[in-house]
């Protein structure tokens, strides 16, 4: 127990997160968004999101120790993975800044200041990538290091500057991106899914700052002759992995969450119409054909079927009964909107019974009553049909002689 307390790296090793986990999450995020990106390829924001997720996947694929060793072996250059991984990470940081700036201000309404900011980001981070390769070419780093290169070469000329450059560029990008995101979160009128997505993105970039702080502290400690390498080798990697997971979820949540919400709303609306749909099936003798269709199309077909059956059934509706049923529902304590739905349900049930008794309506009912409101409120009427006891109470109270109702009026 005391040994663990004195050895932070031993404790952190228990919480190791494999880099393949964030890679899988980022890949899943890319796959989820890929159909939308392909369908709306001309949308530059969607292309940017796709490119960003692809870069993030590449970062975590190439920073795994096994891939680092493979890259070094294939090229024959020890530690060539260092500038390559640093370049990918720098490109990812610049892409994050560009995406947030464009997403925040909208591509169609970009001001001159926004365009200048985007050009500045491209120029600076492209320059950083070039500088990383130049510094590596000037450095002498013959010993391959798979996990502790940052601290091992912390005092090596040119490698020292390269390490500081990539960490500094990463920290600045994360700081600015985090600031932009949290300012955006405080904006009024944001969609709930977008707000939660931004919060996760903000948390992910804050964790990235912890990653940078851990790496820089370990490097500074090497300069002072101390050994805090565990901050770089044991703390920073799981922090980076958790950050990537939060960022991936943050990007997909606004779209996936809204998609799931819309699907749930459509299924709920389809289910709510079931009682009225079943009643209309008894009137028409048929129903909507069972074929594979999208939730939107299934809901539209059910709504259309109900309205198509209600239109001829309207000739049997007793408007006086409807008025008495509405008053009766109010007397029973129902609020006006629910009273209207219950009254409509009573009128429709009475019309169904009347149609069964007299299949052909009387000649003076050729043009039925106005059913505009009824056709618009089929959802509320269908929900009312789920409460037969309430309908029975309203129907019984509305069946009293018209004179007694007139006293109430």
From TrEMBL:
Q: What start and end residues bound the annotated signal peptide?
A: none
Q: Which keywords annotate this record?
A: Membrane, Transmembrane, Transmembrane helix
Pfam families on file: DUF6545
- Give all residue intervals belonging to the DUF6545 domain: 263-386
Q: Where are the transmembrane segments?
A: 15-32, 44-64, 84-103, 124-143, 163-185, 197-223, 235-257
Q: What is this protein called?
A: DUF6545 domain-containing protein
Origin species: Streptomyces brasiliensis
């Amino acid at each position: 127990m005391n040994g663990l307390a004195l050895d932070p790296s031993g404790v952190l090793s228990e919480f190791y997160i494999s880099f393949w986990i964030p890679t899988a999450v980022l890949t899943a995020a890319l796959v989820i968004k890929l159909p939308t990106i392909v369908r709306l390829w001309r949308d530059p924001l969607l292309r940017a999101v796709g490119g960003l997720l692809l870069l993030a996947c590449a970062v975590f694929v190439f920073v795994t120790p096994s891939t680092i060793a493979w890259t070094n072996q294939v090229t024959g250059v020890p530690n060539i993975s260092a500038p390559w991984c640093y370049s990918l990470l720098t490109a990812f940081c610049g892409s994050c800044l560009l995406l947030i700036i464009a997403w925040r201000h909208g591509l169609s309404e970009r001001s001159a200041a926004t365009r200048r900011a985007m050009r500045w980001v491209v120029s600076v981070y492209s320059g950083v990538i070039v500088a990383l390769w130049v510094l590596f070419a000037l450095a002498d780093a013959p010993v391959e290091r798979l996990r502790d290169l940052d601290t091992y070469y912390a005092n090596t000329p040119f490698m020292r500057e390269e390490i500081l450059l990539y960490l500094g560029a990463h920290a600045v990008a994360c700081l600015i991106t985090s600031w932009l995101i949290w300012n955006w979160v405080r904006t009024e009128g944001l969609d709930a899914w977008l707000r939660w997505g931004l919060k996760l993105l903000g948390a992910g970039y804050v964790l990235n700052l912890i990653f940078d702080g851990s790496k820089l502290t370990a490097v500074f400690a090497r300069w002072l002759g101390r050994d805090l390498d565990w901050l770089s080798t044991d703390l920073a990697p799981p922090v980076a992995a958790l950050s990537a997971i939060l960022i991936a979820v943050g990007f997909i949540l606004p779209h996936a969450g809204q998609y799931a919400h819309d699907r749930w709303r459509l299924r709920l609306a389809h289910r709510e119409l079931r009682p009225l749909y079943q009643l209309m099936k008894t009137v028409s003798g048929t129903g909507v054909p069972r074929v594979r269709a999208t939730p939107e199309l299934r809901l539209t077909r059910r709504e259309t079927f109900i309205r198509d059956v209600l239109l001829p059934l309207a000739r049997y509706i007793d408007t006086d009964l409807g008025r008495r049923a509405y008053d009766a529902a109010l007397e029973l304590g129902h609020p006006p909107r629910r009273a209207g739905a219950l009254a409509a349900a009573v009128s429709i049930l009475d019309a169904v019974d009347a149609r069964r008794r007299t299949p052909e309506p009387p000649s003076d009912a050729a043009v039925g009553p106005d059913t505009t409101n009824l056709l618009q409120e089929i959802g509320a009427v269908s929900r009312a049909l789920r409460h037969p006891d309430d309908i029975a109470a309203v129907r019984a109270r509305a069946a009293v002689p018209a004179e007694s109702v007139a006293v109430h009026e």
